[in-house]
Amino acid sequence: MASILISDDSSSMRQMLCYTLTEARHEVQEASNGSKALELAKQHRFDLVITDINMPALDGLGLVRALRNLPDYQFKPILLLTTETDPEVKKEAKTAGATGWISKPFDPDKLLAAVRKVLG
Amino acid sequence: MSIDMTEVRQLFFEESFESLDTMESNLLDLQVGEADKDLINSIFRVVHSIKGGAGIFKFERVINFAHTAETLLDEIRSGQHIVTQNMIDTLLQAVDVLRMMLTNLQNDAEDDAESIQICLNSLQSFLAEPLAAPFLEDAPAKESQAESVDTTNTAPAASGSQASAEKAAEAVEQEWLIEFKPYEDLLKTGNDPINLFNELALLGTLTVQPHLANLPSFTELNPQNCYLAWTLTLTGVVSKAQIEEIFEWVEGDCELTITCLSDSDEASAEIVSTETESTTLAEEVSDTTSLETEASTGTPPTVTEIEPTPVANVDSEAPVVETEVSTESSSEAEPESTSTRTAADVVYAAHEAALHAPIVDADTTEHKPHASGGSHAQSAEASSIRVSIDKIDDLINIVGELVITQSMLDQVSENFDLSKLMQLRDGLAQLERNTRELQESVMRIRMLPISYSFNRFPRLVHDLSVSLGKKVELRMSGEHTELDKTVLEKMSDPLVHLVRNALDHGIEKPAERRAAGKAEKGLLHLHAFHQGGNIMIQISDDGAGFNMERIRQKAITLGLLSPDEVISDEQLYEFIFHPGFSTASQISDLSGRGVGMDVVRRNIRALGGSIEINSHEGVGTTFNIRLPLTLAILDGQLVRVGQEIYILSLLSIVESLRVSLKQVNSLAGKAEVYKLRDEYIPVLRLYDLFGIQNAATRLEEGLLVIVEGDGQKIGLFVDELLSQQQIVIKSLESNYKSVAGISGATILGDGSVALILDVAGLIKLSHTQHKAALFPPRHFVQESGYEYQH
């Protein structure tokens, strides 16, 4: 069981993530944009952060950069949710410090596999 | 893993409709020229989220459409385009199309393929780089269906031989040698080699050989760096792609070589032979699938995945094609699964409806199905309501209090004797209050800000003004005024009608306006506010106004008026509400004004409201709609007179001041007026009016609250001002009887009742009180006009 922070401005996407992860016995907290996620991340020490790229207030890449500057999150896995198949975006994500990415749309098993891959 | 998708699906629809509203208003705010970054980002996100969400449910058409729109928006975002009016209009159309597609998906209805295609084409015409070619000549649905039948015919065959090819591969285990040498800062990306190895171990038998060569001495060691390298051997039925996928996230953070050790075996020769066969098949399948995917979904990426790869890798090909085929069959099974889903939807909706049944007006439910045309308010949506968190919090608070009261009563009832009677009565009184509050809170949930109705007007005004060739600025205020949901829904059509009329017949064409010495751009103002116990909605334009003479002539022609009869303007306005008044013949600038105005008024009256017209030729027209708000919340100012507390609508208060006696004059004996700057304001002593003892009677001891109602001001003399608070209005009529000067009552925090003053009513009262007739003519005329109506 891990504590996971998910950040996405779409509430159906959040619900879907939340449902899947909770079913897999993870503890989940949600944020509807990057800056809210950052606030939450400062208050708790999550084992994993999953974030959308396109969000208001602070976007996914900005969130990753900000998290990497926090001592608590220097080595924590951060996964980006993305619909882009563009390798440029992936490169940018890596440069920002993301651990990996999950392509939307995903099925629950794919999501859990990705989570397992970073949490062990 | 099974997930209840119905709920997520429902949420997706609601959220999408809401975000489409945002997109629409953002588009209307978007200016021609350089794109505003924030706006375009917000618009982009909407389309992007819809595409992502649609992906979960495999709404292929939506994905396809959203993808095109997204591409355009992305190009705008990256500065490749200057925004043109044409582009904005097309994107607005795209909003409509998306709305329609989602509504249809929600209701299992057919899409209007033509309008989708038209919009898709115009979106594509803007694109800098055209999307994949087959897109543009997107075959009609039928053809692509025929094609898909073809594919499904070949698919089983293909998958059959594919399966055999796979079987052949299955027979051979392969041994892979993986050299994995992470760079020092691999750990900083959050990836951990151990997890990667665990993943590999799931594919087959894994042996791990660490290399410690680079490990520095302990003193030099930085625990945040990764100094190790590994040689791994993996044995199993594994393809290179599977291994590569595991290392996908660390690509660029390490040196990685993957080699197959079992290349020279007979087995691989065998594979190659089966492969050549399967490659051709695979190609065939991928060809057909690509055609199909492009025609029906237009998402090229999947195609690139199954591009025939060099022979060395073909063994990895088999599983890929296999999955492709299985998606095929699953998409074939789609209709079935959708139908089961919708069945569940219906159950869900029915359940929802049952929950709401007690409060939803039977009328609305009846009325809904007919309104199927434009609005997406349909079965599922009609039964749900969005509520602000505040209201829910209130509800939870009250329930909390209820629990406390209940436990208090529990305690009293234990070993009850007569000495506890007072406690019991207190407890019961508290319970009663809790219950009442609970009831009110629940009722408040039904209150929605009028912006729900106003929000559609920017678009309506935009579209209409474009098609009419007029320039119109829409101004809206008081959008937060809350109205009961039922009232709001029923007001929606009349409001649209009035706005349409104002644009069509009120505001003139730019040239005419210029000639009349007005600004080219007309102004349409929607304004909502509380007045006394009512909600007022004002729709005013600065257009041509009514030509009273024409109305008069028309009324005479229709035989509604005899030529020598002299009547007031108010009475003339009455004719506008006469059924069919202006439909019979077209009277230039008035044409259409009367169409449906009788219906508008009937709807408003059905809600217990009224509508008034105020028009000046050449200056403009104002429609005042007055709606009752038995349920509405009012921002109230509490005032004290003697020991009594009264409530004034905060909005009606102009100012409050200490009276300086020098400014007070007595007129005609008893009537007092207060000279406020250049105005003379009549003073009404509330203690006198309501016969209250022990109140301040000398003007300098209390306060004068200047209030405004019906366009007139009056000074109310009170002892002092107390707090301001939100209050729930209780109808006096239904609980007692209507009282002049009082519009309702409310219950204060301490449980006592306070009366809400009706400013307009008080002004009227003050007139009758002082027959000195301060403002007589207009008012009495209105009264007689009112009688005329009945």
CATH topology of chain A: Rossmann fold
The total strand number of chain B stands at 22
User: Fraction of residues of chain A in helices?
Assistant: 40-55%
Give average pLDDT of chain A, whole number.
84
* Biggest β-sheet: strands ordered side by side in the sheet of chain B: 14-18-19-17-16-15
Oligomer: heterodimer
Number of strands of chain A: 5
**Poorly predicted spans of chain A:** none
What's the CATH H-level superfamily name of chain A?
Answer: Response regulator
Structural class by secondary-structure content of chain B:
alpha+beta
Shape-level CATH architecture of chain A: 3-Layer(aba) Sandwich
CATH topology of the domain at 449-628 in chain B: Heat Shock Protein 90
- Encode the helix/strand succession of chain A as letters: EHEHEHEHEH
Describe this structure in words.
The complex is a heterodimer of chains A (120) and B (790). With 120 residues, chain A is α/β, with parallel strands linked by helices. Chain A has a single domain, classed as Rossmann fold, CATH 3.40.50.2300. Chain A is 45% helix and 20% strand. Chain A has 5 helices and 5 strands; from the N terminus they run βαβαβαβαβα. Chain A has a 5-stranded parallel β-sheet with strand order 2-1-3-4-5, sandwiched between helices. In chain A, helix 2 (34-43) runs parallel beside helix 3 (60-68). The longest helix of chain A has 13 residues, at 11-23. Chain B has 790 residues and is an alpha+beta fold. Chain B has 27 helices and 22 strands. Chain B starts with a helix and ends with a helix. The model of chain B is unreliable at 132-170, 264-382, 583-595 and 771-790 (pLDDT under 50). Classes of the chains: A alpha/beta (120), B alpha+beta (790). Chains A and B meet through helix 1 and helix 5 of A and helix 1, helix 2 and helix 7 of B.
